[in-house]
Amino acid sequence: MWDSVADYYKSSQWLYRLFIYNKDTLGMHFGFWDVHTKNRQQAILNENDEIIRLAGIKKGMVVLDAGCTQDFGKTNFANDYFDVIFGIESLCYASPKTNILKELHRILKPGGILIIADGYLKGKSNMNLFQKDIEDFKSAFALKEFVTGGEMVASLKKAGFSAIQSNSYLNRVKTVLYWLVKLGGSFFRPIYANSLALELACKGASQGFMDYLVIKAVK
């Protein structure tokens, strides 16, 4: 699984560096938009600030950024090592979720905070209507599975987390999604795959079968 994720990012790296990546923000995620936001890099900083606020990150804390291409189901970190772990649009690649969440639970200190910011299916009652869109989205972003927020919360509980809070930030992500879609497609696979995934994310957001959640959990 992780090989396919790594292949996706290797093939798309030049695209991210050309259109998405910025050396000042060091971010490739969507970011949060508000009335004061002027560009996508500010949106990324907004999301970073929100993660810091929710996790209560302070100077001196030991923090892990759980990125996309690493298998956090098997780490060499000691028990009870980190104060905070956050994964921005990365733990969607974990499958099955519980295995990796158990490992993150192990390396968090007692009372430590896990923050997950990611896209999710919004319920399953109308999934059949959008099954092809969902499968195309998974394929374009190299996802093995695409779960609901409720399923992620259930996996967190199974892994031992408590005090779980889940809030939708979809309205703050929509503007960024629409902006990215304007980058358009190409005959080159990396651009086409990303363009397709973003178009489907916009469709999911507008038609109500996808959501963007920030989930906070405590060890």
Please tell me how large the radius of gyration is: 17 Å
Helix content: 40-55%
Total beta strands: 5
Number of domains: 1
The order of strands across the largest sheet is 1-2-3-5-4
DSSP helix count?
A: 7
**How are helices and strands ordered from N to C?**
HHEEHEHHEHHE
CATH fold assignment: Rossmann fold
Mean pLDDT: 83
- Class derived from helix and strand content: alpha/beta
CATH architecture: 3-Layer(aba) Sandwich
- Give the full name of the CATH homologous superfamily: Vaccinia Virus protein VP39
In percent, how much strand structure appears in the residues?
15-25%
Form type = globular
Low-pLDDT ranges = 185-189
Report the CATH C-level class. Answer: Alpha Beta
Question: How far apart, in Å, are the first and last alpha carbons?
Answer: 27 Å
The largest β sheet comes out as: 5 strands, mixed
GO molecular function, one term: S-adenosylmethionine-dependent methyltransferase activity
Keywords: Transferase
InterPro entries: Erg6_SMT_methyltransf, Methyltransf_11, SAM-dependent_MTases_sf
Protein name: Methyltransferase type 11 domain-containing protein
Could you please describe the fold and organization of this structure?
- The protein has 219 residues and is an alpha/beta fold.
- It has one domain: Rossmann fold, CATH 3.40.50.
- It is built from 7 helices and 5 strands.
- The protein has helices spanning 2-20, 40-55, 97-107, 131-140, 149-158, 170-181, 189-207; strands at 63-65, 82-88, 108-121, 162-168, 210-218.
- Strands 1-2-3-5-4 form a 5-stranded mixed sheet, with helices on both faces.
- Helix 1 (2-20) packs across helix 7 and helix 4 packs antiparallel against helix 7 (189-207).
- The chain is globular, with a radius of gyration of 17 Å.
- The two termini are 27 Å apart.
